[in-house]
Design a protein that fits this description.
By secondary structure, this protein is of the alpha+beta class. The protein is 23% helix and 31% strand. The protein is built from 4 helices and 10 strands. The protein is elongated.
Amino acid sequence: MRNVNTRLVLLSSVLLAGACARNPGPAPMRAVEAGWRQQGEASWYGPGFDGKRTASGEVYDMDALTAAHQELPFGSRVRVLNLDNGREIQVRINDRGPFARGRVIDLSRAAAREIGMLASGTARVRIEVLGADTPPLAAAPSTEPVSIPESCSLVQVGAYREHRNAAEMVRRLEARGEPVRELRGGDGVVRVLVGPYETEAETRLILDRYDGLLRPCDD
């Protein structure tokens, strides 16, 4: 009986170790060092995440040149080289992932198209850190229910310290046909807003689409 119990303990330990290996915890954030390289498999993600909030707080745009990485700080600029065809692209890290074993980066649909891996879904790549941009300011999540006023409303979809990042978001929103504007505050932060919207239903739709913040039209 003692031998049986010993075998069960050993078997449980092996199974537990295997489970941990399949589900590793989050890796520590790696410092940005220009020239740092990594090689492995790239994947891409798109329609199911488009318009959703990324781990950095940005709204994900699958047609922008961005990517997810497990370790690199948000705002890191990275060159991605497709080792299968020699094509390369520069992307900015704004999300966390991928979490599949052996994969090192998860590209947006636009980035995947640029290096010719849309059809295959994955590719062997080498990534190289080029530098870092200032990441956008993430809005603090609110647990309070949003009250929609009867008068017109605007929806804030992002806040940026770097105007070029705000301008890029404006460009993406305009390409989608959204009525967009910029608001520069006394704190130097550029806020990107869409609207105005006059009905509660329309305002709630935009709030949910961009996980935004409600602002009055006369702000």
